[in-house]
């Protein structure tokens, strides 16, 4: 038998047909397992967020608008304000207001992101409970504003978009998980089918004799022939 086996389109289709039950079983199995994990075992994660605008405090007698230097200065300060938001003191103050969450837990689930070339800072927290995510976000944003005003009294901190109780979890993405499991299961089953076919060196048909041994078929013995 030749050491190399080449497959044409007809061989490929025959292989897929031959291994169709195996391919279907593996694909369905992978999808079902993913569904069980996604819907039953993996806890949903909810996200609450707040966006805050950093600016200069308005003066009673100063009716002038922001100038270019003011904007550039506060855009640079946004990174500093972001570090304030990540600080332990902000987490400690928020923890005291919440009562049931430690500063370490808050810092673990808190993400503070300065928006590039803007005066905006985005704060996010995640939790397995939508209500808890909302409460933590409010506590953190209030603590952040207080601490920012203490460090930069001349700054003006305003909430642009306040936190809301999240309606849907951000994780897991159920549809994506199922589609990914289906595709991975399908690809894996087809790959295994090729591997099994490659390792199977038995002759099963007249076509196999012609293809692999390159010998003419003299006769065919019926499967149920009585000798």
From TrEMBL:
Record keyword Transmembrane helix present: yes
One Pfam family recorded for the sequence: Wzz
Family of the protein in this entry: Belongs to the CpsC/CapA family.
Transmembrane segments: 22-42, 175-196
Family matches, as InterPro entries: Bact_polysacc_biosynth/exp, GNVR, LPS_length_determ_N
Membrane topology, record value: Multi-pass membrane protein
Residue span(s) of domain Polysaccharide chain length determinant N-terminal: 7-96
Domain of life: Bacteria
Predominant location: membrane
Keyword presence, Endoplasmic reticulum: no
Subcellular location per the Swiss-Prot or TrEMBL entry: Cell membrane
Keywords from the named record: Cell membrane, Membrane, Transmembrane, Transmembrane helix
GO cellular component terms attached to this protein's record: plasma membrane
Protein name: Capsular polysaccharide type 8 biosynthesis protein cap8A
Boundaries of every Tyrosine-protein kinase G-rich domain copy: 151-195
């Amino acid at each position: 038998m030749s050491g190399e086996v080449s497959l044409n389109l007809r061989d490929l289709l025959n292989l897929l047909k031959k291994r169709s039950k195996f391919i279907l079983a593996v694909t369905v199995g992978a999808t079902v397992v993913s569904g069980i994990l996604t819907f039953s075992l993996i806890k949903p994660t909810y996200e609450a967020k707040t966006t805050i605008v950093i600016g200069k405090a308005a003066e009673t007698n100063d009716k002038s608008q922001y100038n270019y230097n003011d904007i550039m200065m506060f855009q640079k300060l946004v990174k500093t304000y972001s570090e304030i938001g990540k600080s332990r003191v902000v987490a400690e103050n928020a923890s005291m207001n919440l009562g049931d969450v430690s500063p370490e837990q808050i810092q673990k689930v808190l993400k503070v992101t300065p928006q590039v070339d803007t005066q905006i800072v985005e704060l996010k927290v995640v939790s397995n409970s939508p209500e808890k995510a909302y409460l933590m976000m409010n506590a953190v944003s209030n603590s952040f504003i207080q601490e920012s005003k203490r460090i930069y009294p001349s700054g003006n901190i305003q909430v642009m978009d306040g936190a809301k109780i999240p309606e849907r979890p951000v994780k897991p993405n159920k549809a994506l998980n199922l589609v990914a499991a289906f595709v991975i299961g399908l690809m894996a089953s087809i790959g295994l089918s090729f591997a099994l076919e490659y390792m199977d060196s038995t002759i099963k048909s007249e076509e196999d004799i012609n293809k692999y041994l390159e010998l003419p078929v003299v006769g065919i013995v019926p499967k149920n022939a009585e000798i």
